[in-house]
Amino acid sequence: YKNKIKNWVYFNILERNLSKIINLDQYSNIIILSAITKPDDCIENKELSQNINVDSTKQLIDSVNRKNIHIIFFSSEFVYDGLKGNYNEKDSTNPVNLYGKQKVEVENYIKSTSSKYTILRIAKTYSISKDDDTLLSKWFRMIFKDKDTTINCFNDQIFSPLYINDIPLIINNIIKNKIYGILNIGGPEIL
Asked: What CA–CA distance (Å, rounded) separates 73 from 187?
């Protein structure tokens, strides 16, 4: 929707009708990535984020469910409150921000309406590109934009960042091996 890609099919989730764009009978898997993902943006645009992150996503899920298509839904580590750490898939969710609450609402909807689903609770991502919008590239831009820049960071946050190029490998493995359920997906190191 926001990032148009050459030779890809444009889809605005707010229009809520995927079947007008593609023939769903041709697909056995669908990956749902669309969301307002920045927690501050969700708070600043509550109605829009509710519409994109929850309402339109549920409608998309309904249209996919009618075709018995495997749903791969990108959720977030924000479904947890961060108090315990080292979460596993059986831990209870307890989001502390609106974005996390919206993700939990959709997760619960998928679990109650779908039989073929994989929910990926994705950790913070990074890449080696200086032009994307991941953690390292933001720091890179801040450092080289103004050499006197101070980068404020939490000193008590522990996370396992995921290399962005690993995500297609993970998805291919899920599809190939028909892996269903909820998976916490993060990088190999705790930082």
From this structure: 18
The SS3 assignment for 130 reads: coil
The secondary element (H helix, E strand) that includes residue 76 is strand 70-76
For residue 146, what is the DSSP state?
-
Mean pLDDT of all residues in 136-165: 79
Higher-pLDDT residue of 102, 130: 102
CB 135 within 8 A of CB 126: yes
| Identity of the amino acid at 176 | K
What type of residue sits at position 163? Y
What is the phi/psi pair of residue 153, to 5°? Answer: -135, 150
Tell me the C-alpha distance between 124 and 170, whole Å: 15
Average pLDDT over residues 121-145: 80
The helix/strand/coil state of 181 is strand
**pLDDT above 90 (res 152):** no
Contact 117, 111 (CB under 8 A): yes
Q: How far is CA 187 from the centre of its chain?
A: 15
Q: For 118-147, what is the mean pLDDT?
A: 81
d(CA 39, CA 79): 12
